[in-house]
Amino acid sequence: MFENLTTRLGAVFDKLTRRGALSEGDVDTALREVRVALLEADVALPVVKDFLASVRDKAVGQDVLKSVTPGQMVIKVVHDHLVEMLGGASVPINLAANPPVPIFMVGLQGSGKTTTTAKLGLWLSQRQKKKVLMASLDVRRPAAQEQLAVLGVQASVATLSIVPGEPPVAIAKRAIQTGLLEAYDVVLLDSAGRLHIDDAMMAEAEAVHAAVQPIETLLVADAMTGQDAVNVAQSFHARLRLTGIVLTRVDGDARGGAALSMRSVTGCPIKLIGSGEKLDALEVFHPDRIAGRILGMGDVVSLVEKASETIEEEDAKRLAAKIEKGQFDLDDMAKQFRQMRKMGGLEGLLGMLPGVAKVKKQLAQANVDENMLKRHEAIISSMTKGERKRPEIIKASRRQRIASGSGTSVQEVNRLLKQFFETQKMMKRVTKLGQKGLMRAGLPGMGGGGRPPGFPMR
Amino acid sequence: MASDGEKRGFFGRLKAGLSRSSSRLTQGISGIFTGRKLDQAMLDELEELLIAADLGPATAATVAKEFGRTRFGKDIGETEVREALAEEIAKILAPVAVPLSIDPARKPHVVLVVGVNGTGKTTTIGKLAKQLRDEGRMVMLCAGDTFRAAAIEQLKIWGERTGAAVIAREPGSSAAGLVYDAMVEAKAKGADVLVIDTAGRLHNKADLMAELDKVIRVIRKLDPEAPHSTLLTLDATTGQNAHAQVEIFQKTAPITGLIVTKLDGTARGGVLVALADRFKMPVNAIGVGEGVDDLRPFDPKDFARGLMGLED
Ligand SMILES: Nc1nc2c(ncn2[C@@H]2O[C@H](COP(=O)(O)OP(=O)(O)O)[C@@H](O)[C@H]2O)c(=O)[nH]1
Ligand SMILES: [Mg+2]
User: Fold this and answer.
1) How many whole angstroms from its chain centre is CA B300?
2) Which of A317, B214, B277, B310 is deepest in the core (most CB within 10 A)?
3) How large is the ipTM?
């Protein structure tokens, strides 16, 4: 139901002629579309306004890269700024304190606190080898404490015994006490969901905070949250001095604008994201992934960016000409491999595009990975110049020499050559379809299937 | 946004409503209040108010524009503008304000409750059980969320609170199998209403939606007309993703009504305005708290005033 920004801006910029730098007019026209995209992604209105004002300053007068359209250029500027505002590099959970390190989980009802607490418990105990104790301070929702206890068993993480009728602050203190006595590294405190305007409940959270002095106070928030995200984050931050945000249900299809809203009004980093119901579905936050999603276009931006950095237009033209003349040789193939590696390998390249999970899987099965690309490059560089130009002369003895020269096997050399001849054949076929057809037919050497759309190679 | 055809429905009605009431309104108000003229700045503010209430940029823009079209340049105070727009929105929502109705001829009337994780299914069932019990009905609850830890326990506590029998199995057992048993038992005991809880699921997970489909097929095996009511819980805090939730859930489940929960917070649930039009889906009730009495009828007027930031 949402048009993606690339399409939208495409339409806007079709009207504009190419020019050297982005004018105020270009930028304003484009930013109107960006505004709608951000609002549809649930970025809160005041945050959208600030964002547009600052990105406008950045965009006006920017030179448009040779290989991209003005529309793509604006997207790139917007995207870069968005990534920056989302917080650049990821910030780990802070454990730099005397054990047991108290971590306090807070948030609205139903935001996913309990599940996230258990996930974090599992994360810290498995990945960081910490001895973790979890305690639920939720004496409000029926069976909430039992829920954490069950999850504790599933994650093999200890939970504090449940004492019926014990109030939250007392539970928190007992958890820390137990943590001290039993030498736990970390104590995770799950809490009842509460509305940020529920004064009594917020006061209760403040009392817990005062009692245990948490090193981390993490706001757990749903990725589907709408405009209210700013109010929620602001209120929780004002009363509990948040240190980070955990965004849950990122495995849903919400655009996740709340991430930007909450990050902007609190200044707190988004530390982790929840990406599934299973307890190991907790991940480090990558701003660029969420940025592409908020803008509604996968990671096409980084693709444009990387491609514009790594592929030189002239090179591409030369290659195209060679292919047309049927002169594609092993040198060209090696160049393609290098290109692909520079762009983060196939995985990286494909990972940036929406809807390629299936292709990725197939590739994984076909064992196309970076190491393979490297080995193929090595094989080609062990050939003589003549061999590279005229691969058909490479017979058995030469294959043996190339294999030992590149530290690979004859089988691998055979495979590479077979792939090359197939590619050559395919290219001849494709050339008949003309330039466009070539671009769609796939990366040379990979047996087809996968030149990303919009790949700026002309 | 909805397709053009769907849009026309809503905005067509809005337009009709506006022109009907505009003369009355301007006559009534401009004489009494010495407000400023309705200008672009005021309309922009109005639009922003709507966006901040989660109506979504497209709906907010159209509503504000349409409002301006009929009243631009008229003398009108700021509060009056909001009042008038709230009234118009309330009119649009009025047709979807339909309470849940239980058919006493069914024994049991089967209510299936579905929705995304944490949106308030189980709590809503607890509150609903209380209402139905207060009406003197025999209510049974089925603890169909066999997945989430302690979800069964949670529903059992609501059963105790409200005097409704809870049919449950071991955690991790098949929801469809349990639902079958529950249908049989509710029938045998002559229950008036059977309310079936389900595990929360994200609508974009095909496997989980298939599981829901299976539950519905099992219900129909025993009563081809059941579930007689299928409720989708929507969290008022949710933004534009509510569109996808309704759209996709209704493909699998025969949704008959929405329950908007957590309206006791500051989220206004404005996405409902677009949803009401796009899906013509009744809003059966709203949740305004975690207590047993916190399920309320959906009052379009109150809701619309809330959207416009008007207190009662
Ligand atoms: N403030 C408020 N909280 C609610 C409301 N409805 C449900 N909740 C809370 O939201 C959380 C999730 O509810 P639950 O019924 O367990 O959701 P489920 O996963 O869909 O069954 C719980 O903490 C409930 O107490 C409501 O109308 N207002
Ligand atoms: Mg539940």
Assistant:
1) 11
2) B277
3) 0.86
Q: Are B234 and B241 in contact (CB under 8 A)?
A: no
Whether residue B114 sits in one domain with residue B74:
no
pTM: 0.77
Ligand 1 environment, Cβ below 6 A: A 109-110, 141, 193, 195; B 115, 117-123, 200, 233, 261-262, 264, 287-290, 294
Q: Which of B46, B166, B240, B248 to mutate to test the interface with A (most CBs of A within 10 A)?
A: B240
The Cα diameter of chain B in Å comes to: 69
Mean pLDDT for the stretch of residues A84-107: 92
CATH of domain A101-297: 3.40.50.300
Give the right CATH number for A312-441 from 2.40.128.30, 1.10.260.30, 3.30.70.1130, 2.60.40.10: 1.10.260.30
Using pLDDT thresholds of 50, 70 and 90, give the confidence band for residue A359.
very low
Q: Which CATH architecture has domain A5-87?
A: Up-down Bundle (1.20)
Q: pLDDT tens digits for A385-441?
A: 889 888 889 988 899 999 988 888 999 999 989 888 887 777 676 565 544 433 433
Tell whether the torsion through CA atoms of B3, B6, B11 and B12 is positive or negative.
Answer: positive
Cβ(A299)–Cβ(A288) under 8 Å? yes
DSSP string, B258-302: EEEE-TTSS---THHHHHHHHH---EEEEE-SSSTT-EE---HHH
- Going from N- to C-terminal start, the domains of chain A cover 5-87, 101-297, 312-441
A164 pLDDT more than 70: yes
Q: Please report, for residues A133, B25, B114, the alpha-carbon distance to residue B246 in angstroms, rounded to integers and kept in the order given.
A: 39, 35, 11
